[in-house]
Amino acid sequence: QVQLIESGGGLVQAGGSLRLSCTASGRPFSNYNIGWFRQVIGKEREFVAAIGLSGGGTYYADSVLGRFAISRDNAKNTAWLQMNSLKPEDTAVYYCAAKSLTFSRDIAATTWRYNYWGQGTQVTVSS
Known about the structure:
Elements: E1 2-7, E2 10-13, E3 18-26, E4 33-39, E5 46-51, E6 58-60, E7 68-73, E8 78-83, E9 92-99, H1 105-108, E10 116-117, E11 121-126
Parallel strand pairs: 2-11
Antiparallel strand pairs: 1-3, 3-8, 4-5, 4-9, 5-6, 7-8, 9-10, 9-11
């Protein structure tokens, strides 16, 4: 079992920045690829970004490419999502998720591939 806790969400004006954290406990964090997803009520959960076991491979949704950056520190059991130049359409509940074994662009973007999920943190961007 892996427990994931997100933090860092909040209310920010358009153009501002937020840094989300995903802290893990349980099994070794370095065994898991980490993904960030977001969801708006009434819509499907969508892929945002993902990072491989050692941080060497990263993937981003086109909508956040160049604005968001994913990173991790296995010694701290933590992954981050740095969000810059935020837009109102970035408003959502953001979830981090963990999966082991295989990892590729297509796998990273698929929700059902992930074994563990956090409870989510709300990000609201005002115009």
